[in-house]
Amino acid sequence: MTTERSTELTTERLRLRQWLAGDLETWAAMNADPQVREFWPDLLTRDQAAASMEHFRGELTQRGWGWWAVEVAATGEFIGMAGLDPVDEEAPVTGVEAGWRLARSAWGRGYATEAARAVLAYGFQTLRLPEILAIAVAGNERSRALMRRLGMTHDPAEDFEDLTMPPGPLRHSVVYRIAAGAFPVDEP
């Protein structure tokens, strides 16, 4: 018998949880949306979206943390993902990366900021990480603005060309970081 050990995070409006079979339709639709995938080289097929979901599910089960499914607590509506993951080996930077991706219908409501704050709090308070970073395509101003709202700082000396991306504007990546001591801790 296998026991899942993924952690759930809750905020005032959101629940970050393990992936459920019922998330697939929305997840596949999100990853087939050109606006959601604007800073990725291609859209995902339904099968590719399902495979990514199963990968995330497995990492959450194995480690207890990773890329969580995000739902609106009041309604149970699945709206995307947020989480933490070790930086890909191909990147010229190391550490644990925070990230997020929400359905367009969830944009502009502060959900990404709320989910990202919960993820950072978990990384610093539970995992005791010394710092967390975030990587984005240089032109992804929405993500960069969120990184700044989180208190993350950008050092242009760490910017790099992501050779896993096709030649063009998607290759130039920026790195933002925040140290554990710079992240505000909410007192109970």
UniProtKB/TrEMBL annotation:
<dbReference type="InterPro" id="IPR051531">
    <property type="entry name" value="N-acetyltransferase"/>
</dbReference>
<feature type="domain" description="N-acetyltransferase">
    <location>
        <begin position="14"/>
        <end position="181"/>
    </location>
</feature>
<dbReference type="Pfam" id="PF13302">
    <property type="entry name" value="Acetyltransf_3"/>
</dbReference>
<dbReference type="InterPro" id="IPR000182">
    <property type="entry name" value="GNAT_dom"/>
</dbReference>
<dbReference type="InterPro" id="IPR016181">
    <property type="entry name" value="Acyl_CoA_acyltransferase"/>
</dbReference>
<protein>
    <submittedName>
        <fullName>N-acetyltransferase</fullName>
    </submittedName>
</protein>
